[in-house]
Specification:
The complex is a heterodimer. By secondary structure, chain A is α+β, with helices and mostly antiparallel strands. Chain A has two domains: about 10-70, Orthogonal Bundle (Arc Repressor Mutant, subunit A); about 80-205, Glutaredoxin (3-Layer(aba) Sandwich), CATH 3.40.30.10. Chain A contains ten helices and six strands. In chain A, the strands form two sheets. Chain A has a four-stranded mixed β-sheet with strand order 2-1-3-4, covered by helices on one side. Chain A has a two-stranded antiparallel ribbon with strand order 5-6. In chain A, a hairpin with a 5-residue loop joins strand 5 (about 175) and strand 6 (about 180-185). In chain A, helix 3 (about 30-40) packs antiparallel against helix 4 (about 45-55) and helix 4 (about 45-55) crosses helix 5. Chain B has four domains: about 1-115, Ubiquitin-like (UB roll) (Roll), CATH 3.10.20; about 125-130 and about 150-290, Alpha-Beta Plaits, CATH 3.30.70; about 295-365 and about 530-700, Rossmann fold (3-Layer(aba) Sandwich); about 375-525, Dimethylsulfoxide Reductase, domain 2, CATH 3.40.228. Chain B has a seven-stranded mixed β-sheet. The longest helix of chain B is centred in the N-terminal third of the chain and has 16 residues, at about 100-115. The chains are: A alpha+beta, B alpha/beta. Chains A and B meet through helix 5 of A and strand 11 of B.
Chain lengths: ~210, ~725
């Protein structure tokens, strides 16, 4: 089944944004990839061939460009594609623990989709929201910030019921107080604490976990 | 333009890259990604140099340093080392290499450390070991010891990209030469980097590499990532006997190096000939050498009392020929030689024919020619309008196809310096724009080249030729006529199909076309040396037989041709001079062992009319001999004395005739006038590049046909 066969108008529209030359035509590669991924959640090899034919290139070329970007998927993704930031700031704020919890709870590994087709997970590099670490991104909709275990549970619960909670829109920048605590311009405390994720109960009674 | 490299002043033409300035000065800088015939991209970052240039004031005077007369233009150094391959040398530039700059030496060693970071230490089992650019450069410019103890990146090893090329993704250092080669030279985007950063690897999504020119990536890979699968594990580089010679599979005459080990031909790599093949050869030329070391005939063979072929001595072969010729004389003999025979063998045959007065002599494959003033390959690459008519270049002359594709990208031949071809010619760019409207390809079936042509049509050659010289309704033919009319240096290439349909009327129409449009015509010779042999009188005399009339002959000497496999019937007495026990040799009365063109000394003439030398590689061939010797044997049996008894006398005669000392031809050859052309009607001929026996997988090897019917003892006889 061809994806673009009945979308000649869309293809013409995308191609019209670039110079009408063999080189110019190739520029349409990225939006065409995006189009397929938005519709199907990932880009199958047959789609790569199709796009290559549309822009006068080869599947190798398409795969090369596509594989450069981690946000194009070659494997099917779930309805909710959850991406956990694993770079330094989030890692310090417990993203490793969040990731383990997520993978365990959903019983899914990167590249897999839960049997019900709802969830897929991916570790990503810095999402640029270090002030609100740990951060989890939903598809390309936006961020859930300061994701504690409780919040994670609540998010997954809502998603299982079929409606993902609205993503956070925290205004930036955050204000850093003298004591190092960060707060948003609204006065709300920013950023999560590992304490919230993993209460240090063992520290209180002097035991190592 | 004055440039100073490590204190040495050079006078260089504008447009020189800094890396060429360094090499021109006799200095050295390591590099992996630059290649003379590919665009410089600065991918490997090894060719670091320190450089600086003088600057000018707004009034045009130089910014000076120092006082009074001692003042010199102040050099503004780049704050960091720069990649020399992508930097243009400019007037007054100062360059420091690792020889004079510690900064450069350290940064190169640091770069080398990065390059080796993920490179596996499998040099002892790597075919490239001993001829590896990375190995050499790591020795010359690296730290010598590794500071990295952790696991290296693991990726696909021994991954066959095709039947001929094997990829080891771990060894790849991401120089991008192979990717650029496919994009820029044959214009096929079949290889590319997948993923990014330290995960990057080379792969294809096309399910294999296109056959044609894929083998060249094994030459240009600076490491052992892309290896020749035919030569894999067959020998180490230092064990090979390297023989630079000329390929004679097609009339292009590419420069090759034949690598033999223990008398067996194991590998062929491309040689550089700026005028002919640049640095590229076709897959047949590179991989199709299996026949040279498999199932060779090593001694003469004759029929015993039971009619079986048995090994014999040369004297017994003479006796057998003499016995077979009883009641016949030299006029009954027909001599047919392969059109890839050398000029030396050609003059020997011509002299033999002159001496014996026989009328039936022919060489095959042979086609009528056209004109003597063929354009050179460089002229084709620099032409501005090419029409290819009735030719399948992929079968007839593959590398000519690459030179035509070079024409589409502007025909830029890199400059030449003291060190050879420019290492980084900055005029070459990545993803070159191709002017497809400068090429028209018209033939009866689609070819590989037609995919790159602006105008194509599937027409038989006679119709197309008539349309080209007269008028036609076909849009592509019209466009081709227009192309020849408008171009300043138009070239028309005629292939086998066109030449066989070239009637007298078509010839004169073509002549008026060439005069009108100043089109130069390249008529593709049918055999590797057909153009050279055509200048010798090796066509049937009046009453003589052509090659396709073999069955009418009473006695025939057939040299390295297999007419019986092509459906001809044997003459009464058949002498076969061949490298293998072909269908013809199996039926022959006397078989003389022949040498392949890899083992010959001699001269061949390519499609431009360029004399190119053949040099003998050290291959095991027993008593095999060239045609000169075979003719000598037949002459002995006929009791005639030939003047040409060996290569030396043949070369003397040839040198006198051509006015060129063919014994000392430069390896890149030279163009000399060949004299008049002998033409005679020829049977139609279908060009075929890959012949039976060139691949190891060919049925001829698996069917056990290479086993020779060796008799345990020699034929009882004269002793």
């Amino acid at each position: 089944m061809s994806y673009f066969a009945d979308k000649s108008e869309l293809v013409a529209d995308i191609l019209s944004r670039y110079p009408d030359s063999p080189q110019g035509k190739r520029s349409a590669l990225m939006p065409l990839l995006r189009e397929v991924q938005d519709a199907e959640g990932f880009i199958h090899e047959s789609r790569m061939d199709e796009i290559a034919a549309l822009i006068g290139s080869t599947a190798t070329e398409v795969r090369s460009v596509m594989s450069f970007y981690s946000t194009y998927h070659t494997l099917p993704t779930g309805k909710y594609h959850l991406q956990v930031c694993s770079t330094l700031m989030c890692a310090l704020s417990g993203s490793d623990e969040l990731w383990d919890y997520l993978v365990e709870t959903l019983d899914v590994q990167p590249g897999e989709v839960t049997p019900d087709g709802m969830f897929s997970v991916q570790k990503v590099e810095c999402l640029g929201s270090c002030g609100t670490a740990p951060v989890m991104q939903l598809g390309d909709d936006g961020y859930y910030e300061s994701v504690t275990r409780t919040r994670c549970d609540a998010l997954l619960q809502a998603m299982r019921l079929g409606s993902a909670p609205a993503v956070d829109h925290h205004p930036v920048p955050v204000v850093v107080a003298e004591d190092g605590r960060q707060s948003l311009s609204s006065g709300e405390a920013a950023g999560g604490s590992t304490d919230a994720l993993y209460p240090l109960t063992h520290a209180a009674n002097g035991k190592q976990p | 333009m004055k440039v100073h490299v490590d204190g040495i002043s050079l006078d260089l033409p504008a447009g020189t890259s800094a890396i060429d300035a360094v090499f021109h000065a006799g200095k050295d800088v390591p590099y992996f990604c630059a290649h003379p015939y590919l665009s410089p991209v600065g991918a490997c970052r090894m060719c670091l140099i320190e450089s600086g240039s003088p600057r000018k004031n707004p009034d045009g005077t130089f910014i000076m340093e120092g006082e009074g007369d001692a003042a010199t233009p102040k050099i503004f150094w780049f704050p960091k080392p720069m990649a020399a391959c992508t930097m243009l040398a400019t007037e007054g530039m100062q360059i420091k290499t690792a020889a004079t700059s510690e900064v450069v030496a350290k940064s190169q060693a640091g770069m080398m450390e990065f390059t080796l970071l993920n490179h596996p230490l499998d040099c002892p089992t790597c075919d490239k070991g001993g001829a590896c650019e990375l190995q050499d450069r790591a020795f010359e410019y690296g730290y010598g010891a590794s500071r990295f103890g952790f696991d290296r990146r693991h990726a696909e090893k021994h991954y066959p990209l095709s039947d001929y090329v094997i990829l080891d993704q771990e060894r790849c250092i991401h120089c991008k030469r192979c990717v650029r080669y496919f994009e820029e030279v044959p214009g096929q985007e079949v290889l590319d980097f997948i993923e990014r950063g330290s995960h990057t690897f080379i792969d294809t999504a096309e399910g294999g590499l296109p056959v044609g020119f894929q083998g060249n990536i094994t030459d240009i890979c600076p490491v052992g990532a892309l290896l020749d699968n035919v030569a894999r594990f067959r020998g180490r580089n230092w064990e090979y006997d390297h023989t630079p010679t000329t390929c004679t599979l097609c009339p292009v005459g590419c420069s090759i190096t034949v690598d033999a080990r223990n008398g067996s031909l194991e590998r062929i790599v491309a040689g550089e000939n700026r005028e002919v093949n640049e640095a590229w050869i076709c897959d047949a030329g590179r991989f199709g050498h299996v026949f040279a070391s498999e199932g060779r005939l090593t001694t003469p063979m004759i029929r015993n009392e039971d009619g079986q072929l048995v090994t014999a001595t040369w004297d017994q072969a003479v006796d057998a020929i003499r016995a077979g010729m009883v009641g016949l004389d030299a006029h009954d003999l027909a001599v047919f030689l392969n059109a890839d025979s050398t000029l030396e063998e050609g003059v020997a045959a011509e002299a033999f024919v002159g001496l014996t007065g026989l009328a039936s002599v022919d060489h095959w494959p042979r086609q009528p020619g056209y004109g003597a003033d063929a354009p050179t390959l460089t002229e084709i690459a620099q032409s501005d309008g090419v029409v290819v008519l009735g030719a399948d270049l992929g079968e007839e002359a593959p590398v000519l196809e690459l030179r035509i594709l070079e024409m589409l990208r502007g025909g830029l031949l890199p400059a030449e310096f003291h060190h050879g071809t420019a290492i980084a010619d900055l005029r070459l760019v990545e993803r070159p724009a191709r002017k497809r409207e400068k090429l028209a390809v018209i033939s009866s079936k689609p070819s590989r080249l037609s995919e790159n042509a602006g105008f194509t049509a599937q027409l038989d050659a006679a119709t197309a030729l008539a349309g080209l010289t007269g008028s036609s309704d076909n849009a592509a033919v019209k466009a081709a006529t227009e192309l020849l009319n408008k171009a300043e240096r138009p070239i028309l290439i005629l292939g086998a199909e066109a030449l066989s349909s070239l009637s007298g009327a078509a010839r004169s129409a073509l002549q008026s076309l060439t005069q009108r449009t100043r089109t130069r015509i390249l008529a593709l010779p049918a055999g590797a040396n057909a153009r050279g042999l055509a200048s010798l009188n090796l066509v049937p005399r009046s009453g003589g037989l052509r090659y396709d009339q073999l069955s009418q002959a009473r006695v025939a000497l057939v040299s390295r041709l297999d007419p019986l496999a092509e459906g001809q019937t044997r003459p009464r007495f058949l002498i076969s001079h061949d490298t293998h026990l072909t269908a013809t040799a199996q039926q022959a009365d006397v078989v003389l062992p022949a040498v392949t063109n890899y083992e010959k000394r001699g001269t061949t003439v390519n499609l431009e009319g360029r004399l190119l030398p053949l040099r003998p590689a050290a291959l095991k061939n027993g008593e095999a001999a060239d045609l000169i010797r075979a003719l000598g044997i037949v002459a002995e049996a006929l009791d005639v004395k030939t003047g040409i008894r060996g290569i030396r006398s043949a070369q003397t005669l040839l040198s006198e005739r051509l006015g060129v000392n063919v014994a000392e031809l430069p390896i890149h050859g030279l163009i000399a006038p060949l004299g008049m052309r002998y033409d005679a009607p020829a049977a139609p001929y279908t060009p075929q590049l890959w012949k039976e026996g060139m691949k190891r997988s060919d049925p001829v090897y698996s069917a056990g046909m290479i086993e020779l019917p060796m008799a345990p003892t020699f034929v009882a006889g004269d002793d």
